[in-house]
Amino acid sequence: MGVFLGVDTGGTYTDAVLLDDASQQVIATAKALTSRPDLSHGIGAAIDAVLARKGGIAPEDVALVSLSTTLATNALVEGQGERVALVLIGFDANQRNRAGLTKALADDPLIELTGGHVHSGDEAAPLDLAALETALDALPPGITGLAVAASFATRNPAHENAARALIRARTGLPVTCSHELSAALGSPRRALTALLNARLIAMIDRLITACETHLARRAISAPVMVVRGDGALVSAAMVREKPIETILSGPAASVAGASWLTGERMAMVADIGGTTTDVCLLRDGRPAIDPEGARVGGFRTMVEAVAMRTTGLGGDSEVHVLDGLEAALKLGPRRLMPLALAANLHPALVHHALDDALSRDPAPEDAARFAIALFTALPPGLPPRDTALAERLLTGPQRLSTLLRARIEEPALTRLVAGGHVLLAGVTPSDAAHVLGRQSDWDTQAARKALTLLARRRGSNGTRLATDAETMAAAIIDQLTRQSVDCLLEAAFAEDLPHWQAPPETLARHELLHAGLSRRSGLVEIQAGLAVPVIALGASAGCYYETVADRLGTRLVVPDHAGVANAIGAVVGQVAVHAEGTVTSPAPGRFIAHLSTGPKAFGDAEAAIRTLDADLRTQALEKASRAGVFAPHLRPAREDILAEVEGQAMFIESRLRLTASGRPRIASD
C-alpha cells in the first residue's frame, strides 16, 4: 500500500502522522518532544512512534515523506538565527534604512560596494570586486553565510552573480542572492529577505539532515518534501537553498490540515503552538495568499505565503508581571521551557531550587528561572563575556542567580538566548494549565510550586499577585484568553479592510468593541461577535479555546487530530513553483526582456514577450523537476501595464508569471 508520512517540527513538540494514500484516511499519529540542539532525536522518536502504532508498515510502503516546521517562523519572531554578513551593492543611505533592514542586520557585518544597475538593467556603476575581497578577508569569526543584494538585481542579476562567485571561491560559505528569492522591485525589502534567508540556512539544513538521516536508518528511501509558506510542497534540496520560503510553513500546513479535517468552507483558523499563535481566514476552503509578502517578527518579507497573522503567544510564552498600582500580566513574545517540563528533564535541580525559594519570604524574583544550554561544545565566534557564560553552562542547566555573577553579565545571556544557544526555563501558560488540571504531560508538582512563588510576588501597591497557585494559574489563562481574542479580532478586522479607517490593532482593542463582546446593556446597547466559526488547532487548543470562542460569541471547532493538523497538512498538499519576469520599455520603440541571463533589447514588444515566455518556461520546468513535481502542469499569467498618452495606449511594462504545479513525485513514480 502507499503510505504518506508527515512530520511537523515545532518549538516544543515534533508530530508525525501516517496517511493512507488510497483511502485518504489518517491511520496513526504520534508526538515526541522536539530535541535541541540535535533535532534528530525528536524527529526519530516521532517517526519511530508513529510507525510502531501502525504495525506491518514496511520501509518500501512509505511512498512520500513531507515536513512542515515552525522553526524558521519562531526564529524570526524571537530574533534568532545564525550570524551572517550582508553585502549591499549600489545602495544609498536612504535605501539602507528602509524596510527594517538596519534593525534586522543588528550587529552583523555590513559590506557596502559600488555597482548595481538602473531600472532598464544597464549598469549604474562598475562592481568593485577588489573592495569585496578586502572586506571578506576582514570578516570576524563565526560568520555562517552571506546575503547579497544589488540595486535592480531583478532587472539584471550580473553583479549579484559575480559577487556570489567571488564569495564562494574565497570563503566556501553559502551565499543567498536577493534576485533568486523574488522578481519584484524594492531593493531594501529584497535585501531584508536575503538577509533573513541566510540566517536560516544552517537551521533548516540541520532539520532536513536530521530527518533524512533517520529515514535512512529505517531504510526508508521515499522522496522528502517540505511545506512552503504558501502551502505548496517543494523538494528538500530547494528548501536548503531558500529556507526563507519555509517561514509560515507550519501555519500553512495547519490551514491545509484544518480544511482537510473539518470540511469547513469559511472560518478563522487559530493554531496555537508553544511559541506563536497563527491566525488565518479560510475562505471557500482555501487560505488567501498575502499579496504584500509574509510578515513575521515585525519584518515584511518578499516571501509568498498565506495571509497569516503570527503573534508571539503560545503555551510556552514567558509570563511578565507589569509594573503599576494594579499588577497586570502580559504573555510573550519569548518562548521559555515550561518549569513542568524542565522538572521532568532535570528534577533534582528544579525541585531543589523551588523548595529553597519557597522556604524564604520574600523569595528572589528569579528563583524559578533557569538557563539551559542548547549546545554540547562552545559555539564559535562568541565575545569573551558570552564565552565565559557558555563555559559555565557546559556543566549543565543552572539557576539564573547562580549563573549570573554580576548584572553586567545579563546582556551576554540575552545575546546567547537571541542566538539560539541558550533556552530559559520559567513560568508559562503550560504550567498554569497543569495546575488547573487541563494538562498532565509533565511535572504538575513543580508547576504548582512555581505558581505559588509567583503568587507571593507583590505589586507596586504592596499586595500579593494572587492568594494561591490556582488563582495565579487562572489569571494567566485569563490573560492568554484576552491576547488570543485580540489575535483573532486583528485578523478579522484586517480581512474587513478597507471598511475601517483605523488599523486592525486599534480596532481589536477598542472600548466599544469589548463592551459589545461583554454583552453590556444600558441606554446604548452594543452587540459584537465574530461572524464565522473558529477552528482551533494545536496540542493545547482544547485547553484554552473554549473560553476564547465564548468571548467572541461564535462556534468552536476542535477537530479530531487537531494536535497534529500541521503534520496532516504536510502530506495533503501539491507541489507548485513559479518563474517570473518583466518586459520594460525605457524609450519608445525599445523593449527589454529581463531574462535569467540578463537584459536583451528588442524593437517589438511581442517579440520580447515571446522570448521572456520561453525563458520562463525553461526556468519553471527546471524548478519543477528540482522541486519533485510529477508531470507538471504549466499555468501562465500576464499583466500588461499601459498608460494613455494623447488618447493612445502606451506600453509601460508587461509582467509574466509561469506556475508549474502537480502532485509530488512518490516512490512508485
SSE inventory with pairings:
Blueprint: E1 3-9, E2 13-20, E3 25-33, H1 39-53, E4 62-69, H2 71-77, E5 85-89, H3 93-96, H4 101-105, E6 110-113, H5 129-137, E7 146-150, H6 158-171, E8 175-177, H7 187-217, E9 224-227, E10 233-235, H8 236-241, H9 249-262, E11 266-272, E12 277-283, E13 286-287, E14 295-296, E15 299-300, E16 308-311, E17 317-322, E18 328-335, E19 337-338, H10 339-345, H11 347-358, E20 370-373, H12 384-393, E21 398-399, H13 400-403, H14 410-418, E22 422-426, H15 429-435, H16 444-456, H17 469-496, H18 504-508, H19 511-517, E23 534-537, H20 541-552, E24 556-557, H21 565-571, E25 575-587, E26 590-595, E27 598-602, H22 605-627, E28 633-645, E29 648-662
Parallel strand pairs: 1-4, 4-9, 5-6, 5-7, 7-8, 11-23, 19-22, 23-24
Antiparallel strand pairs: 1-2, 2-3, 9-10, 11-12, 12-13, 12-16, 14-15, 17-18, 20-21, 20-22, 25-26, 25-29, 26-27, 28-29
Characteristic terms for this protein:
single chain; 669 residues; six-stranded mixed sheet; globular
Descriptive report:
The structure is a single chain. With 669 residues, the protein is of the alpha/beta class. Among the domains are: 85-200, Rossmann fold (3-Layer(aba) Sandwich); 317-476, no CATH class; 575-662, no CATH class. Strands 3-2-1-4-9-10 form a six-stranded mixed beta sheet, with helices on both faces. A hairpin with a 2-residue loop joins strand 25 (575-587) and strand 26. Helix 2 (71-77) crosses helix 7 (187-217) and helix 5 runs parallel beside helix 6 (158-171). It is globular and about 85 Å long. The two termini are 14 Å apart.
